[in-house]
Design brief:
This protein has 390 residues and is of the alpha/beta class. The strands form 2 sheets. A 7-stranded parallel sheet has the order 3-2-1-4-5-6-7, with helices on both faces. Strands 10-9-8-11-12-13 form a 6-stranded parallel sheet, sandwiched between helices. Helix 6 links the parallel strand 6 and strand 7. Helix 7 crosses helix 11 and helix 10 packs across helix 12. It is globular. The relative contact order is 0.12.
Length: 390
């Protein structure tokens, strides 16, 4: 099949989940013999398409004919909300026709309007997370600073509903996201496509491991990451650091704001921003922590930690969508006291850390390849094309 993937921009190094799963899904589809063209509003950053194998990469441009396309009603209002010239949506359709695309995949929340044009291709929205539940998960009744998420959830719900008829399939990463896409967004054709991880790239590194250390990484302007870090640094880390004054918790990630910098100023906490290749930095720490308390979807950082063979200590919120077996190869805890006791116990038991690291890497290799994610996506696409369900 011929695919056109549209995303506003593809960054490198990968800074967000959408950057990861766009590049990896394209690469997996190409490996299976399909043709992929990448289309964007801005040129992909150098290195962003290396090893992907895309047949072509284009920067979207409009011409005079595209100006005739005008969306109506709520769709028109959301074009304005996102600052999108409707001509660009028509231009996406024109590029798809030129490449004789069977499938157009629009990636990310702000890509929905680009599916509205006069399309012959099957239109897929690669949403990953459903956005109403994503925002509601961050609301804390007693914390006024989180209440804006209620407004954002309402806006995103109306937005998704306004474009539901312009979407033939939506790809999400968990069963909960599928439920929300159907019953909140009103999109009927929903495929669960769990995230994978490149286990060749993310493989254990031969670096010296510093004792009494823990590490977290992720995009540091992302609400659930900030809330998870606040919970860990404020409710878990003080007790750990009192017991182990030499302990170090390192935060790695892009775009740290003031909230994260305040956390990094706490005793025993360090911030390392804008790390291009985090593999050695992660593997030099004894334990990877994923202390999520909000958000949905599958956590790429957990899959990466597993692939790197790191022992993982996480909350149950961090395991959403993983369908873990009863003997899960990571330690799951939600109580701050349990965390404060478990982390030093892991530091003191190198044999257990090795066992956990080996087991979690075996698990992620078996359960979370991008090849299997592409198979799931292809199954829904092929069924829709065969049945003519548009």
């Amino acid at each position: 099949m011929k695919f056109v993937f549209f995303k506003h921009q593809l960054t490198f190094p990968r800074q967000a989940g959408h950057d990861v799963h766009t590049a990896e899904m394209m690469r997996a589809l190409v490996a299976k013999g399909h043709s992929v063209v990448f289309l964007s509003r801005r040129s992909p950053e150098p290195g962003a398409l290396d090893a992907v194998g895309a047949a072509a990469a284009e920067v979207l441009a409009t011409d005079a004919a595209d100006a005739a396309f005008r969306p109506q009603g709520l769709q028109a209002r959301f074009f304005s909300y996102w600052g999108i010239d409707p001509g660009y949506a028509a231009a996406v359709a024109r590029v798809c026709r030129r490449h004789q695309a069977d499938v157009l995949v629009a990636v990310g929340l702000d890509a929905l309007p680009y599916l509205v044009g006069p399309h012959d291709a099957l239109r897929v929205w690669y949403a990953a997370d459903e956005w109403v539940l994503h925002h509601l998960s961050q609301v804390r009744i007693l914390d006024r600073s989180t209440w804006f998420n209620v407004h954002d959830a309402a806006v995103k719900g109306v937005y998704q509903q306004a474009f539901a008829r312009s979407v033939d399939r939506v790809w999400v990463v968990t069963d909960r996201d599928r439920w929300a896409a159907r019953w909140i967004a009103g999109i009927r054709g929903v495929d669960v496509v769990p995230n994978g991880v490149d286990t060749d790239y993310f493989s254990p590194r031969a670096v010296e491991e510093r004792p009494n250390t823990a590490v977290f990484w992720g995009r540091l302007d992302f609400g659930p990451n900030i809330q998870g870090l606040e919970w860990f640094v404020r409710t878990v880390w003080p007790a750990v650091h009192r017991a182990r004054p030499d302990a170090l918790f390192r935060i790695i990630g892009f775009k740290p704001g003031e909230a994260v910098r305040r956390l990094a100023a706490q005793p025993g906490v360090a911030l390392e921003a804008d790390v291009v290749d985090l593999r050695d930095a992660v593997c030099s720490h004894a334990v990877a922590v994923v202390p999520m308390v909000s958000g949905l979807g599958i956590k790429n950082k957990l899959l990466e930690a597993a692939a790197l063979g790191r022992p993982v200590l996480c909350t149950s919120k961090a395991t959403l969508g993983l369908n873990l077996p009863p003997n899960a190869p990571m330690i799951v805890a939600n109580d701050p006291g349990e965390w404060a006791a478990t982390l030093p116990a892991l530091w003191d038991d190198s044999a257990r850390r090795r066992v956990l690291g080996d087991a979690v890497r075996r698990w992620v290799i078996e359960r979370h390849s991008w090849a299997s994610a592409a198979d799931r996506a292809l199954h829904g696409v092929e069924a829709a094309l065969t049945s003519g369900a548009r």
